[in-house]
Amino acid sequence: MKRVSFAEFGGPDVLQLVDAEEPHAGPGRIRIAVRAAGVNPVDWRIREGQFQKVRPIELPAGVGQDASGVVDEVGEGVEGVEVGEHVFGEGSSTYAEFAVLSAWARMPEGLTFAEAAGYPSVVETALRIIRQAGVRSGQTLLASGASGGVGSAVLQIARDRGITVIGTAGAANQDYLRSLGALATTYGEGWVERVRRLGHVDAALDLAGSGVIRELVELTGDPRKVISIADLAAPELGARYSGVAGSVPEALAEAAGLISRGKLHIPVEKSYTLAEAAAAHIDSHAGHTRGRRVVVV
Fold first, then answer.
1. What is the pLDDT along the chain (297 residues), one digit of tens a residue?
2. DSSP for the chain?
3. Radius of gyration of the chain (CA)
4. How far apart are CA 219 and CA 217, in angstroms?
5. Does residue 269 contact residue 293 with C-beta atoms inside 8 Å?
């Protein structure tokens, strides 16, 4: 089979489309014929070696953790899913023709494979950090860098829970944030005052790692109310860094429910082939994403 792999840490040019042995579903796992894989910032951060001190990997290594596809192997002990079903979920080395998933759910009706591949990690992350922020109905959450996948999920999940969200993004994405129910403003000079004019901030999320932790602490008045998923140095300023996933199966089940009820939709901004994985990482690293980017197999 074909898969995207890298044999050394570095820039996008280390990614290679190679022939590899097919993986197989062990106990508690399923294998899918991949139809699409989600492109996440964590993918290129791992490729660069940013997590080697905390989550070391051996090289050569595959790329990707989110995927959608058709079940073609069911491991020992797995119940409730059959060969031929369409699922989306999380696993490893998902930029490939076949991948093994450790968590999955049936794809909701009407969802394309490309759309489904964009949900697993971002919804788990959004649910986790909203919970960690401790915000509840009637309060206001600030999401810095809100137009990407996680931000798109945060805005919609928060709105469904009665939480007001202020979102910052580039000028081109202001209408997109508003379409998801956010009070929107641009980042850049004067953004803190623009946020203040929109309302009191009870908690804040740093979704882009753009060096805004000090300002988010200033806006909330308490570093414990600031959570980052992108700035490893956030704890140095008293804020929290959230990088360990919670229950992915529970998150996928909640995502499926939200999607089925019409409460969650994350658009696919751009899709790539396996051979274009390097371009996908370049674009992901550049930011300014509206929704999700996916690799279509």
1. 999 999 999 999 999 999 999 999 999 999 999 999 999 988 999 999 998 887 899 999 999 999 999 999 999 999 999 999 999 999 999 999 999 999 999 999 999 999 999 999 999 999 999 999 999 999 999 999 999 999 999 999 999 999 999 999 999 999 999 999 999 999 889 999 999 999 999 999 999 888 999 999 999 999 999 999 989 899 999 999 998 888 899 999 999 999 999 999 999 999 999 999 999 999 998 877 788 899 999
2. -EEEEESS-SSGGGEEEEE-PPP---TT-EEEEEEEEEE-HHHHHHHHTTTTTTS--PSSEE--SEEEEEEEEE-TT--S--TT-EEEEEEE--SBSEEEEEEEEEPPTT--HHHHHTSHHHHHHHHHHHHHHT--TT-EEEEES-SSHHHHHHHHHHHHTT-EEEEEE-GGGHHHHHHTT-EEEE-STTHHHHHHHH---SEEEE-S-SS-HHHHHHHHS-GGGEEESS-TTGGGGT-EE--S---HHHHHHHHHHHHHTT-----EEEEE-GGGHHHHHHHHHH---SSEEEEE-
3. 19
4. 5
5. yes
Fill in the amino acid letter for 218. E
